[in-house]
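Q: Sequence in, structure out?
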Amino acid sequence: MTASRRTLLAAAGALALVAAVPAIAQTKRKLRFGVGPLLPTAEDTKKAYTPFFAHLAKELGVDFELFATTDWAGMAVAMGSGQLDLAWMGPWGYIIANNSTGCTALATVKYDEKPFYHAIVIGKPDLKVVKFPEDSKGLTMSFADVGSTSGWLIPTWYAKEVWKIEPKAFWKYSEGATHAANEMAVQAGQADMATDFDRNRNAMIESGKVKPNANKILWTSAPLPNDAIVVPKGTPQALVEQIQKIVTAITVEQSKTLLPPHYTGFVKADHASYASIEKAGIAVGKIKPKA
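A: Exactly. Output:
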């Protein structure tokens, strides 16, 4: 092959890649973005995350519409039914959606420069629980929505595989609450214990919604991958790479205006980044292994 021929082919390939990225702007002038219940209300979440999605839309050269769901499972339904073009999803919500729709994670958010967090169980400050869960038998326990990673999946997996207990028999058990509601329930003395994640507890204390001494941490999980940026199955690879480039280019300084407090940017991710969450989902019987 001559040098001129190689140059021509390389130029054609580069043009094809460039053309593929803005193609979405030509076929869809407005993209539909989604974000799950990361804050106490949908309004709070939408307000806090709009700057990020506005930045992404601007860089892609499109308009956007942002939807904030009230439960994690709703994100999977929206992604699978073609209602969303991109979403900020919790780890378990992503795995549920991936299992049913084939959507793909392309980035993981960093929190205080770390791409991971922890599930926790909080309890009333006066509880005499030295060893968890052994010393907590018979107490009231509030798990979060079944679509929550830290509030339902991970403690359910630990109960089955590590603690060897049946939550509904071991505790006075309830489920379905938001993380914010769990924090408030323990603070008000309406529940002895509840599930949450360390990021949410810290944020609620910082905002004054929960007093620092309103509860204590009884248990902490191993590190879990942070929230994912997710696109539907069939999204062109060139567009995936363009979105990855945009979000991973966000600096710590930019994060102060584009992201909620403590979020400091993104790292590239793929489905394998969430393998531990998928394993837990299979173990508790909520999803089936892929053929």
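Residues 1-26 have pLDDT under 50 and may be disordered.
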